[in-house]
Amino acid sequence: MNIILRNEDGLVSLLVDEIGDVLEMPYGEYERPPETLQGRVRECIDGVYKLPNRLLLVLNSAQVTGSYAAAA
Question: How many domains does the structure of the chain reveal?
Fold first, then answer.
């Protein structure tokens, strides 16, 4: 399954194992990435939401697709 992202350079396709529920999260529950995430992985995560028994990671799509310099 693929997720298609549009950026200034065009379209990028991400291959994913599965797509779960689409969630609308309240901004007040948004938190910075945990300190346990370090290096390149931390750069790719904008923040997290705490869900029951798991974390929802907010992906920085510009960083992942390599268009961060163009978007900044």
Answer: 1
Rounded distance, CA 27 to CA 4, Å? 24
Rg of the chain, C-alpha, whole Å: 13
Q: Is the pLDDT of residue 58 over 70?
A: yes
Does residue 16 form part of some domain? no
d(CA 69, CA 49): 26
Whole-angstrom Cα distance, residue 40 to residue 60?
Answer: 11
pLDDT surpassing 60 at residue 71: no
Residue 2: strand pairing partners = 15
**pTM above 0.70?**
no
